[in-house]
Amino acid sequence: MYKAVVEEEIPIIGYIAWSFVDNNEWGSFKPRFGLHYVNYTTPELPRIPRPAAKWFAHLSTTKGLDNLNLETVQMGTNEEQEATATLEELHYPEAGGNGGVP
User: Would I find Hydrolase among this entry's keywords (predicted)?
Assistant: First the structure.
């Protein structure tokens, strides 16, 4: 979108985020493209904001992208990397999983 707005000078008049959280679409939890990462390996199923969540919040509240610096944003990167359940574990209890809840 940055390229469209800034470099190409395309007048964008609206935007919608496809998914608030990671979800099971097309029969799989991958690819993960939600604004919030969901850790399916813990009972609490924490929702961890990605930098895109800050971007979307800024865009929604200011109706613009001025003064937004995503390089200073660090949200949940360690916990994202620690979520290691496989798709088989999430979907098939007989494969050693129970829906992503330990």
Answer: yes
